[in-house]
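Re: the 166-residue chain
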Amino acid sequence: MARIDMVHPDNAEGAWFVDTRCIRCDAARHWAPGLIDMDTDGLSFVARQPENREEAAALWRAAVACPTQSIGTTEARRPPQPAFPFELTPGVYALGHNARESFGAHSYLVPRPDGNLMTDSPRFTRGLAELVDDLGGVRHVLLTHRDDVADADRWADRYGADVWIH
């Protein structure tokens, strides 16, 4: 949960904010470009507040993806609907929940008839796992880099999935 007592001084005035625990991974700026920017030290901050539902949804995706949970709002504790899995294109879901242990690497789920493929590992959360269950679970976990392992073992254990590392 974002810490209101550690608010970045450059945040735009309003409900949304980033705290100073940011690790410079760029996950937030990826999900909310134009809404979240970075200072000269590479720390993220809310550059402007959302003006519509789509922009608010983008900030919720940034908040849920943030590996340090440094993005928050004073108006609500949870998004009105799950931010992830988020279908990027037909058949490819971003999983968000980026893990600090993988320095904020993105992870994806690709549903396949012979078993779903998870690429890299998100933080393991019960809520995300239940949503992945709804998409058919995980048969294979493909890790693209040794630093992007994060909670791969927990995901593999839950589904009895094979783990592959590139």
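The CA atoms of residues 60 and 153 lie 27 Å apart.
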